[in-house]
Amino acid sequence: MPSAADIIRDSITEFSRLQDWMISIKETNPETYNSMYKRYIELKVTLTSLGVNLTEIDRIKE
């Protein structure tokens, strides 16, 4: 079973990668962006509930 630290690390990595992808396609493929945005919100809620401060790593400002 993964530890809380493993879950946090993996979620932060996914959150960061997802933002990179979202930023790169926002203008060219809004439908895919919107689909990714749903996952972004899920990760944001998960990380916040785990006590992670997203101020420094959240690059999507909506």
Write structural notes for this entry.
The structure is a single chain. This protein is mainly alpha-helical and 62 residues long. It has helices at residues 4-25, 30-49. The longest helix has 22 residues, at 4-25. It is elongated and about 40 Å long.
Q: Give the helix tally.
A: 2
The largest pleated sheet is described as: none
SS strand fraction: under 5%
Q: Which series of helices and strands comes N to C?
A: HH
Helix content: 55-70%
Radius of gyration based on Cα positions: 12 Å
What's the gist of this structure?
This protein is an all-alpha fold. It has helices at 4-25, 30-49.
Give the SSE layout.
Elements: H1 4-25, H2 30-49
Helix pairs in contact: 1-2
Keywords:
68% helix; mainly alpha; elongated; 62 residues
